Amino acid sequence: MSVTKHLVHEAYGRILSQIFEGTLKSGDLLQEAVLGDAFGMSRTPVREAIKRLESEGLLAPEGRFMRVRTMTVEDIEETFFLRLELELVAARAAVRLPAAQVDAIEARVRQLMVSDPAKNDLQRQTDYDFHRLLVQEYGNPAVAATVSTLHRRTCVFDHTQVPKRFLKGCNEHLEIIDAVRSGQADAVEDALRRHLEGARDAVFECLRKSQPNS
Description:
Elements: H1 3-21, E1 29-30, H2 32-39, H3 43-55, E2 59-62, E3 65-68, H4 73-91, H5 99-113, H6 122-134, H7 141-154, H8 165-182, H9 185-210
Antiparallel strand pairs: 1-3, 2-3
Helix pairs in contact: 1-3, 2-3, 4-7, 4-9, 5-6, 5-8, 8-9
């Protein structure tokens, strides 16, 4: 990886973390120079990272500037509609996952359940890796990339926004893992559908409380 690509990757990851952790909130303005100074790099890699985040739907243009996108009920509805279409089909192939990978992700989910999500970044990374693993065996990089992008759009609704979903979501992950081990693609699809619909409904409730006129 070239120095420039490395810096773009670093800037992308740091801005993404700030959005997920709430340092950058919905509607906040992103200033290339300010972020560049904070990251110890020029504006160029920051600009490229911002373009990538815009393409993934996490930022929205406002004149000459970019702001953290305010997710609406309609945005969430569209995102989960696509996830329920793509991810359910792709996850059926998860029954072919190597046992060692299934065991490893289960260990991470169980570790997450006994941790304090407010003190680390385990929830976001574990959740991201879990859903990425589910579509791995489908063998379609475009679908996997799309699912990951859609997943990132809803990651801001973590334990800080929907705390009741934390342990429930973890238990649903374990149910999906059990379905994968059963070798029954229908069981995997059913368990994942319940999980995604539960997450969607929790996000809807959160948004309606914060945006009562939506």
